[in-house]
Design goal:
It comes from Erysipelothrix rhusiopathiae ATCC 19414. The protein is α+β, with helices and mostly antiparallel strands. The chain contains 10 helices and 20 strands. Helix 1 runs antiparallel to helix 2. The protein is elongated.
């Protein structure tokens, strides 16, 4: 659903600011409470005036269509206030959720509904398979002329060659397993094993059962896999914890062994997937570090919004070069840091004028502007009205409402 694979963003994250903002105070307008439980809604909607969303029970996402029609998702945190004309829907992350929605107007507004043609929805994070039992596991060292006449059984079996070479025959077809390679035998597959020549071979055998749709993994049947470093480490961890279990009976060692085996099977299933190379080349640690850094910078800006914050201040405080900061903001905020700081200040100014009824000169002073004329130019460039015109429009609206 998201562009790329990232952790969930919250409505309090800076990335949400292009669609709205969060607030702590409840709505002064009529509130509609509703219950959601479906993961793929029938439609999205947009409202011509701002809308607030608050989760009362459970956890929920607000899914928003960006201007290009691509969905972005945010976990609703605090009270999320959406800008007018933003197509959105709400989907529960938990089994269900209770939402309070408030349209921020007592006057006339329009609501547009959009068919969910893209099948925007939430795919729950649940296991598609799980290992139910590990029946047996053993590490074998076999010498020259070793020959196993073969068997078939109802359970699954993995053979991992540590050193040497092992020839296995499955349903009449031979495969050679070299050092640090493995093979998965499916249930009821008749298989033989032997060693060619005078060399010995050491290998690990794991016999187990798992709950999985066999048709989903047909692509790994009758294939030899050369282990990646990650797979090799998992085999070593499996052997290590099997030894700990047998020697010291450490609590939850069995659970760890099953976890290692499940992770190994997942890596084998992903081995030939189209995104495998991309998956290996990605750097999730770097991506999450960047998200955390962006969030910390955003907190710093919000906490110091009444100060004359400069790009140099951010560079000094977070020990980051100016060029790196520019790249970070362009990538995550789609704007340079100076513009972002200005946007936050202008949004805060709008709130001060709207809710605190402060004089324009005091608003400018509180936000760190030394010149009211410079503040007024920035405000008008942002919203199309000068601060005075904006305050007057609010006064006229309130007077007409009375």
């Amino acid at each position: 659903m998201n562009k790329g694979e990232t952790m969930y963003l919250k409505t309090t994250s800076p990335q949400f600011l292009k669609y709205g903002q969060v607030q702590d105070h409840p709505s002064n307008f009529k509130v509609h409470r509703f219950f959601v439980e479906g993961k793929v809604p029938q439609y999205l909607k947009s409202v011509s005036v701002p809308v607030t969303l608050e989760v009362l029970e459970g956890i929920a996402l607000v899914v928003i269509l960006d201007p290009s029609g691509d969905p972005e998702q945010f976990v609703i945190h605090r009270i999320a206030r959406l800008n007018p004309d933003i197509p959105y829907t709400v989907i529960p992350l938990t089994q269900s959720a209770v939402i309070e929605e408030s349209i921020q107007s007592d006057g006339v507004y329009t609501v547009h509904h959009y068919e969910n043609e893209q099948e925007v929805g939430y795919l729950p994070i649940r296991p598609k398979f799980y290992v139910t039992d590990i029946f047996s596991y053993y590490y074998s060292v076999k010498g020259k002329n070793y020959h196993f006449s073969g068997e078939s059984h109802f359970y699954w079996e993995i053979t991992y060659v540590d050193t040497g070479e092992l020839v296995t025959e499955i349903d009449g077809k031979e495969f050679k397993l070299e050092s640090q390679s493995m093979m998965l035998y499916f249930p009821n597959q008749f298989h033989k094993q032997r060693i060619e020549g005078d060399k010995s071979c050491s290998y690990l055998t794991i016999m187990f059962d798992m709950n999985i749709n066999v048709h989903d993994i047909d692509h790994i049947k009758n294939k030899v896999f050369t282990c990646t470093q990650e797979m090799y480490n998992l085999f070593n961890s499996f052997i290590k914890h099997s030894t700990i279990l047998e020697t010291y009976n450490v609590p939850y060692s069995r659970d760890l062994m099953i976890s290692y085996l499940q992770e190994l099977i997942i890596l084998v299933i992903q081995y030939d997937s189209p995104n495998h190379t991309q998956h290996l080349n990605s750097n999730p640690i770097q991506a999450n570090f960047e998200n955390e850094l962006v969030n910390e910078i955003n907190k710093y800006i919000l906490n110091n919004i009444c100060e004359p914050i400069s790009v140099e201040d951010l560079c000094d405080h977070f020990a980051i070069s100016r060029s790196s900061l520019q790249v970070l903001f362009k990538k995550n905020m789609d704007m340079p840091p100076k513009q972002y700081i200005n946007d936050i200040k202008m949004m805060r100014a709008q709130v001060m004028i709207l809710e605190e009824n402060l004089p324009i000169t005091e608003v400018a002073m509180r936000l760190g502007f030394s010149s009211i004329h410079y503040f007024s130019r920035k405000f008008k460039k942002q919203f199309g009205l000068s601060p005075t015109e904006y305050a007057q429009s609010l006064y006229n609206k309130n007077t007409s409402d009375d």
